[in-house]
Structure prediction request, 135 residues.
Amino acid sequence: MASIATARLLGHSTPGRLVLLDRPLFRLGALAMGVGELFGDKMKTAPDRTVFLGLLARVMSAGIAGAALAPRGREQAGALTAVATAVPLAYATLAARERAMARIGQTRSGVIEDAIIVAAGLTIVALAVKPRKGP
Prediction:
């Protein structure tokens, strides 16, 4: 979501039409949540990503991102695909992160995980968005 919000703030459009992304407060909120995630999951008190509220946030953000990145007219399919992927990935990545934490610690494993996710998100969004056309 933060990558999509950044692209929209820079004047790029997403393939799928999503009115939420045209709201400045929503875009800034998505950026703030992305930054919060980068810092929050390195804290020892951070809850697992599979707790109810964590999964709910993932489902919501995945649905919005999937709709925004889907071809125009296929937003619902994009949202459903993203949600169907996000839930099992939450469990798979939690298991991988727990193994990494046991080997290299919470902070280092979190930084590596974040670098992978940020790079993947930026790549996907860069491939999907295009500059807005003028009037």
Notes: The first strand starts at residue 12 and ends at 13. The mean pLDDT is 87. The chain has five helices and two strands. The CA atoms of residues 2 and 110 lie 18 Å apart.
